[in-house]
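User: Teach me something about this protein's shape.
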Amino acid sequence: TSSGVNGLCNAIQLVINSGKLVVNSAGNQGSNVEKWPASCNDEASDVFTALNGGIVTDKNMFITVANSVSCNSGCTMDSGAVDSNYGPLADVAAPGTNIVSTSNDGLVATSSGTSAAAATVSGVAALMNECGVALSAIESTLQSTATGTVNFSGTNEPRIDVYAALGSLNTAPGALAISSTSIDELASGVAASPVAVGDLSVTSTDACDSISYSIVPGGDGASFQISSGTLEVKAGTLLDREEPRTAFNLTVRATDFFGASAADLPITVTLNGINDNDPVINPAGGPVIAHAENVQDIFAVSATDADLPAQVLSPVSVSTSLVGSNIDGALFEVVGGQLRFKTAPDFETPADSGLDNNYRVTLTVSDGAGGSDAVSYSIDVTNVIESVIVPNVVGSPQATAESTLTAAQLNASVSLATSATVAAGDVISQNPAAGTSANENSVVNIVVSSGSGLAADPILVNTGFVDYNDAFGNPFRRWTFDVTNKSVYPADFFAATPDYGPCGLNDTPARSWVNFYDAGDDSYIYGFCALGTPDNLNGIWFAKPAGTPPPAAGVYITIVDRSPGGLTYTSNVVPASDLAFP
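Assistant: First, the predicted structure itself:
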């Protein structure tokens, strides 16, 4: 009845008045006659006219939905369901055939009909409103953006297309931006994992739009990736400021769900330098450095640092720790880029810790950011031949003359000569003469008086051999010798003399000692330090274990006069052929 319709339509209007959009199913009788409440907004309805212009005055807030068939196979796409009502009472058509949804028993079920189609439009309307479409504009937007029509017995209804509906209202994203465009270089050089640069964003988007970011091909883009809106440097990319590489250039694009893009954003990613290199002192330490005496400057020193941008280094300086490799550091300084001695070194008077002209010093440098270098050097001061004035040693005792020449950086070569006027042991003459110039460490020949007579070199002869057993029963052969000119040696030549030092446990050995030597290599064989008289030179000997031959090159002896100014007298060589064997 009219009153019943009136109440139903009034109720719908009250809902609309409360700000709600009403979505209504057209009904499932397969006709285009009046059906309620669908006809509440049908201006062609008799009831609508009878009620003086209709009950639902906000037609755009009351959407009646017909059922269309949408499928992939086995049916005709966008055909009207045979049982769906249609005609003036319907506003749009929507899929309502074989719709899978939840059921009252908590499971899912398949249903068909305009109720299912209305449910589809209700979901679409909610989505559109969430995306910023006013409730009053949803019906007209669905009708104007429909991409197909559904035929119901000659009557066509617009089939909704939610993508087209939302896309028709889409606006491009606002300006693209990034939160940061610089990263630190990596001490390791190559990135082991992605390195975040900055977060991408756009200044404005549609209410429920989604933005995807991409890298435009070209430039350095291949070295980057975008993860969850963050621009990242790809793993495996070289991030070393010292290669050198100061920046990367690429372009980023923001695209919304419907393919609209913001203006591309060119980005320059700057690579910040970090302190990942220590400074290096030049030259490097290594082999011992030879340096001539009397010269202060040794060599130029400098320091470099591979870090970029360039760092300000402290001046290269001598380490303050005066131990170990810098034990002589107090003797050095760095002035004007030169490592130098504070005082020019003197080879003859070394000042190093070992007093052997080997000086050790360590230099240090710092970059002020935790990086440093220390290099140690070993410097050998070498002798430079210098001119010295030869002192006068004539008339001085031999020992005094030798020490005087040594102090003057000269060496003495001593020879003996008899003199009736110069006491034994005093210098008779010298060459070069006193007052002349000579190279340091050169030789000054001095002639020392041996008194009125001079002993001669011994004449050694073999007198035979003796085979014997030692105290332990071991067999030996002893070769015996005589000095045939032993009479030329003064009687006190072999006298006990405690003033010249002991011989083993003997505190009063002879003034002169006799030693046997191998003529092949001058190696010591045997000796006598307490002969007592020159006559005891007859019977001197050396021995070898039985079966051991005597030295193949023969033997000789020396008589060493240990008195001040005493000389060493060397005999002839007695050949092995003179020594019986076996």
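Now, about its shape. The chain is about 10% helix and 35% strand. The mean pLDDT is 88. If you'd like, I can walk through any region in more detail.
User: That's plenty for now, thanks!
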